[in-house]
């Protein structure tokens, strides 16, 4: 399903420009190829429209580009490797009539792993990537910075360079969110949700998590007054979505309202490609509005 569940936002450095043709060429140069007999993992681009060879690998609508990455991981349980290794060690020790050295066992472990790979099961993961050439940013649908960096590395490999930095501001977001809640500031259409996480400003391991909680309540103010700062906060965009904003500026658990999800339900089954493109434009319109509002709110809170 297209609709992003997470958003890690990267901003392109000002001295660089997006080239849609260069991005398309880079994607076309790295299509997904299944793992070979000796591969433990492979990743590559597949079409957003489906994995048919007739579908393009890039959806480009006036500089708004949608990519989809497929990742194959070979699954080899450690218990299977351990059992196969034990059998091979026993065979070798009987053959040589002596105990094997540690280095020899490590070498056998590599051999066992390579022998088992062709018979291993495959696990597949898919990741969406939205490239906004208008606002010079990249948004990855991933909950992990490491995973996002691995995805971007595939683009950098072919493009040579892609100078991106995760979105951030000079003021730590914990202070901004804490001020927002503590001073009961109001910024419609973005409103406070009912979920919050606070961490001690000195001891990061001291964490308070609250769900189904009135955010502007005395209970939350007590934690703030004791030195804790907000590290996660659920927010609602009354235009059609909710999300958890983390102190590293990532958005997680994004949920779009049914009123948004159902807008393009009139498409016929044979119009699936057109529906995907319409859904994409609808989604990025919503996310763009939310990003713009959040950026303005953060700037306003910092200057208050």
TrEMBL record:
It holds the Pfam family RdgC. InterPro entries: RdgC. It is found in: Cytoplasm, Nucleoid. Keywords: Cytoplasm, DNA recombination. It comes from the Bacteria. The keyword Transcription regulation does not apply. The keyword Transcription does not apply. This is Recombination-associated protein RdgC.
């Amino acid at each position: 399903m297209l609709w992003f569940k997470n958003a890690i936002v990267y901003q392109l450095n000002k001295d660089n420009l997006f080239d849609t043709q260069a991005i398309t060429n880079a994607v076309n140069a790295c299509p997904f190829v299944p793992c070979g007999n000796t591969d433990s993992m492979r990743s590559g681009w597949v079409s957003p429209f489906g994995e048919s060879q007739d579908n393009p690998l890039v959806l480009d609508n006036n500089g708004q580009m949608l990519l989809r990455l497929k990742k194959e991981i070979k699954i080899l349980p450690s218990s299977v490797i351990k059992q196969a290794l034990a059998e091979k060690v026993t065979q070798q020790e009987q053959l040589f009539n002596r105990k094997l050295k540690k280095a020899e066992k490590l070498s056998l472990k590599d051999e066992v792993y390579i022998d088992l790979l062709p018979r291993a099961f495959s696990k597949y993961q898919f990741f969406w990537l939205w490239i906004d050439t208008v606002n010079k940013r990249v948004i990855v649908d991933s909950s992990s910075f490491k995973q996002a960096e691995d995805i971007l590395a595939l683009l950098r490999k072919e493009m040579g360079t892609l100078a991106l930095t995760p979105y951030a501001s000079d003021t730590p977001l914990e202070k901004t969110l804490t001020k927002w809640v503590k001073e009961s500031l109001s910024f419609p259409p973005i409103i406070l949700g009912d979920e919050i996480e606070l961490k001690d400003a000195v001891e990061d391991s001291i964490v308070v998590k609250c769900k189904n909680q009135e955010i502007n309540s005395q209970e939350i103010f007590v934690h703030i007054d004791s030195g804790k700062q907000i590290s996660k906060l659920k927010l609602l965009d009354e235009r059609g979505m909710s999300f958890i904003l983390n102190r590293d500026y990532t958005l997680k658990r994004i949920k779009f309202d049914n009123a948004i999800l159902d807008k393009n339900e009139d498409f016929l089954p044979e119009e699936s490609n057109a529906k995907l493109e319409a859904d994409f434009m609808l989604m990025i319109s919503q996310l763009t509005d939310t990003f713009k509002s959040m950026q303005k709110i953060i700037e306003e809170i910092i200057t208050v």
